[in-house]
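Entry 14. Ran structure prediction on the chain below.
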Amino acid sequence: MFSRRSVLSLSAASTAALLLPKNLYAQGSAPAVGKPGGSLTAAIFADPLSLDPHLTGNLQGRAATRAIHDTLFTIQDGRLAPGLVESWEQPDEKTFVLKLRQGIKFHDGTPFDAEAVKFNIDRIRDTSIGSIRGGEITALDTIEAVDAHTVKMVTKYPFAAFLFPFTDVTGCIGSPAAFKKHGIDYGLHPSGTGPFKLAEYSKDNRTVLEKNGGYWQKGKPYLDQVILRPVPTDSTRLSELRAGSVQIAEALPLQDIQRLRAANEFVVSEKPGFRWEYFGFNLRDQYPGKSKAFRQAFQWAIDRQALHQVAYFGTGEIGYDGILPGSPFYDPNYKPFKRDVDKAKRLIEESGLDTPILIGAPLQPDPVKQRATQIFQANAAEIGVKVNIEQIDSAGYRNMLRDGMMPMDAQGWWGYRPDPDQYLAILLGSEGSYAKYHAYSNPEMDKLIQAERAGRTEEERRIAFRKISELMNEDAVYVPWHYSSDFKGLDPKVKGFQHAADGIINFAELWIEA
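Output, structure tokens:
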């Protein structure tokens, strides 16, 4: 019987103490005090498109939305930490009781309370508005506003990672009054509790955020204004950073990273573990991936070092499973494969496939993936497999994947998630969308996913995740090879920057040094 109570009942102060690195905590180190005032301009890769937390999809939209809306929870050292939720407890294996911060108001002056949280989560689950966040909280059974500052959520089954989606836009809380007033156009008139308010939005031109003078975190934000300018061309973002017309540029071109570091013109910040790269196989009978031995051959055939150097110019990290760096479940010593072409050839012989073996590799026009797939193509040729690289646009790629007609998936998994369950269940669980795309189903894997979800401690979940990695590599529906990095360039006058694993900038922490 699950009898643990208040396992996660942590005040903001005690959580910070638990999560702070021991050496820092012991020394009593305090963060530098920011200087108020000034404006910062960031060159972003694409337009935010929407500032509605339940509709926004791209990284830029999530970043702007989170500057306007606080999240229920935050992440520290890969673990759950307080946000709008000040403390929480888990009285049984399916119940979460959240205690909210008090005295906070939305930008429109209405109060933040438990009813507002329930309204937002009910809206996420309302398919009629086109919410794209509902899939992240399918485990939720009921939600109740117990009183003005207490929310109770009950899940359909034990799920240790249930609260993690509430660290991102799923956990962004907007004003119910503003949602009701603006409806589907809320994204043009957002009203959160965050450090910034929307001052101007001009599609494909700029998004202007202004300081929320009544922000509940006293003294923050430091900046008076943040301007987000969509600049889709890598070289142009770089030129504007050099010229001083922007103070931050995201998605620096990989081929220039080493030179930019050596030149020391500005700060080059790298965060490994931004996304996970793999080569995935379709297990349906009409494709070579139906043979486990065929799939396993590529664990030994691919040259991970060459992929690391040529596709990613030596940035990021070589990867051997689906647990991203920065996660408490990541094991840097897990390296079960080294290149062995002879072993790969023996596995191809054991595959029982008719020769010559041919496999198609539909590929979008992404230069990184083009380089990676060409290396895969050369490695495959060494073991007698011909890979046909087929150029395809984004819409065609999505259609092939969703229709289960993609022989091989070379695109990988885009985007960091703080808990591995948030993507591994999709990729490996029998009911996961990607598992269905690839026709993968293993009852033993389903049991392991259930085990990590039901884990009572971090150690129990770690054991389950290590077994998931082993079984994933045994089944080889995904052959892992890299953890790629997020890069940002910063003017040296920008202070307070901390590179988050998800690549989203916390503008409330930034200031400009005179």
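DSSP finds 16 helices and 19 strands in the chain. Will compare against last week's run tomorrow.
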